[in-house]
Write a structure and sequence with these properties.
The chain folds into two domains: 6-249, Dihydropteroate synthase-like (TIM Barrel), CATH 3.20.20; 257-359, Sulfite Reductase Hemoprotein, domain 1 (2-Layer Sandwich), CATH 3.30.413.10. It has twelve helices and 15 strands. The chain has helices at 33-46, 58-70, 83-91, 107-120, 138-143, 145-162, 177-188, 205-221, 236-249, 272-282, 301-305, 337-359, and strands spanning 6-9, 12-15, 21-25, 50-54, 75-78, 96-98, 124-129, 168-173, 196-197, 227-228, 257-261, 290-295, 310-313, 319-324, 327-333.
Amino acid sequence: MASELQIVVGGIPIGGGAPVSVQSMTTTKTHDVEATMAQIDRLVEAGVDLVRVAVPGLPDADALPELVERSQVPVIADIHFNASLALRAIDAGVAAVRINPGNIGGADKVEQVVRRAQERGTPMRIGANSGSLPEHLRWTATADPAGALVQAAMEEVEVLERLEFRDFKISVKSSSVPVMIEAYRRLSEVVPYPLHLGVTEAGTAFTGTVKSAVGIGSLLASGIGDTIRVSLSAEPEEEIRVGFDLLKSLGLRHRGVNIVSCPSCARQGFNVIKTVELLEDRLKHIATPMSLSIIGCVVNGPGEARETDIGFTGGGAGAGMIYLNGKPVYKLDNKVLVDHIVELCEKKAAEIEATRNALEPAQ
C-alpha cells in the first residue's frame, strides 16, 4: 500500500501522494568542499531532488554549513556510529539526517539526536541494510532474509515512536532483488511512513540499472515507494538519469526528452542505434518533458510518430519524414538528422516553457 504519512525534506514533500523524488550520494570527501560542491552542481544539472553526503568525521561535519548554504538542493547527512556528528549536522542546518538508531551509541545517544531533530524540525531516514544487520538477526536472515530486514527496521521504528518522533522515512535495502522486493512489500503493510527504495550495492551502470529497474520498478508499479536512489558503481549523475528514466517509463514523472526508438533490423534506412546514442547524449541538457520517436522504417514509424511531439521515420533512399505534433511535415536528409532533431527539440522546449510561463499567475 502507498505511504499514508508525508514528511518534508528541505521543501521536498515525500510520501502521502507526493511525486516520487530522485536522490543520489556524493562520492567525494565531504570535507573537500569545492570537490563536493562541483559534484552536487553536476547532480543538480542532471535533475537531482535530494543529495546525501557521508559524514564519517569531524572535518566532514565542519564542512556542512557551507555545503548547505551553497547547494541548490537539500543536503542530507549520512551518519553512523557517532551521535555527536549527527547533532553537529542538525545544527548545521541539513535537510535531514540518515542514522541507524542501533549503532549510534545507545538509547541515551538516540534520544539526544531525536530531541535535537525535534527542536530543529529535521526529519530522519532510518532503516536496515542486508550488509549490516544487527548481530541478533543474523540467524534470522539465513532462513528469512526479507523478514530480518523488516524486523530490524521495525526495531528502529519502535525506538523513535517511543520518543514520539514520527518525522522519518524508512529503507530496507538488499543487494538481492527478490529479497528487497519482498521486504518492502511486507514493510508497506505494517507502517504508514514514507519508504525510500533502493537495491543496495547494485553493481555497474549496466547491471545495476537492470537490478534497479526490476526491484524499484516493480514496487513503484504496485504503488509502493516515495523516494528512490539507484545505487550504481558509476558517476552519481548516472544514478539520476537512470532514476528519471525509470520514473518516466512508469508514467510517474516526466523530465527531459523521452526517446522512443526501434531496436533496428534489416529494414532500417539509417543507423538507428548510432543515431539514438548521439541524440541521447546531445539532448541531456533539456529538462522540459517531451517525446521523440526515431524509427528506422515505415512499418511502425508513422504510428509511433503520430504519438510523439517530434518524430523521424523511414530514412530510406537517404531521407525520412519529419513529424511534428503527430503530423508528417517534410522530408529530411539523413545526413543532417541529428543536428536537425536537436534543433527541433530545443525549439519545442522553448515553446513549452514560454506557454507554461504565460499561464503561471503573476507573482
